[in-house]
Write a sequence for this structure.
């Protein structure tokens, strides 16, 4: 298979979003659980199809204008920092030599995914400090996913500052290294959260807006492409090549294409919520 025609000379990067690499235990969490065998098949496909997995530092340098992005770049990211990242995902990432970025909830190291239980998720253990250091030593880039997985569109300004800045400090103390990347919990934010992320000194921040990242995009409002539990390999390949979570000709994808065309024409830029 050949990489997507949309990418000539590293002009875009598809940032893939995963959560749990495990069999779903409840119906409610199914969408966000990628079976380990399927994850392995996807990582193998990236390599076999000529895509180039890169870390978020490479994406940041490219957006800053300080580094080049390889053609057909793909960045693999994980949200929430469940323990399966070390136990299940890491051996697969190593097998296919795929750099990855994991966003962890800094105030809940070694705890569990309590914030999802009310929504019908199973109890899932989160990575602890030793796990984070092991991931770091294996080349995984660690980013912040806030302190308590608070919805930053709903908490007050002081809480936003704590969630954004204190999570960074805490992770840097744990890892003994700079933490430069942030993922907005639930993908939700408002102006003050965006400002807090910038003031805290993060180089990039990812959302859950659908689409590929292109040069000129705001580094603190990066789009991603979500991988679902039910994506077979063919659909996964289409997602990567189209840079879209729903790579079918639907009303939704046509709207996305139209938005991109307007954006390229300078008519539309991604906007922050008030
Ligand atoms: Zn999350």
């Amino acid at each position: 298979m050949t990489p997507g025609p949309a990418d000539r000379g590293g002009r875009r990067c598809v940032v893939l979003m995963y959560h749990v690499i495990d069999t779903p235990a409840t119906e409610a969490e199914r969408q966000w659980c990628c079976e380990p065998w399927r994850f392995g098949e996807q990582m193998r496909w990236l390599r076999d199809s000529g895509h180039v997995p890169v870390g978020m530092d490479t994406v940041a340098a490219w957006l800053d204008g300080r580094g080049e992005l390889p053609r057909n770049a793909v960045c693999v990211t994980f949200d929430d920092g469940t323990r399966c990242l070390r136990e299940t995902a890491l051996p697969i990432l190593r097998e296919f030599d795929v750099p990855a970025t994991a966003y962890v909830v800094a105030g809940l190291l070694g705890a569990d995914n309590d914030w999802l239980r009310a929504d019908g998720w199973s109890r899932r253990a989160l990575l602890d400090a030793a796990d984070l250091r092991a991931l770091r030593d294996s080349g995984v880039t660690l980013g912040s996913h806030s302190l308590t997985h608070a919805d930053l569109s709903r908490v007050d300004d002081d809480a936003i500052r704590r969630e954004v800045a204190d999570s960074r400090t805490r992770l840097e103390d744990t890892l003994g290294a700079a933490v430069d990347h942030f993922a907005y919990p639930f993908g939700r934010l408002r102006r003050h959260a965006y400002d807090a992320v910038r003031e805290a000194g993060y180089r990039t921040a990812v959302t859950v807006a659908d689409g590929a990242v292109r040069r000129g995009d705001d580094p603190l409002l990066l789009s991603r492409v979500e991988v679902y539990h039910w994506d077979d390999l063919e659909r996964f390949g289409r997602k990567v090549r189209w840079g879209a979570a729903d790579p079918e000709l639907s009303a939704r994808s046509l709207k996305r294409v139209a938005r991109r065309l307007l954006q390229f024409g300078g008519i539309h830029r991604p906007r922050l919520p008030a």
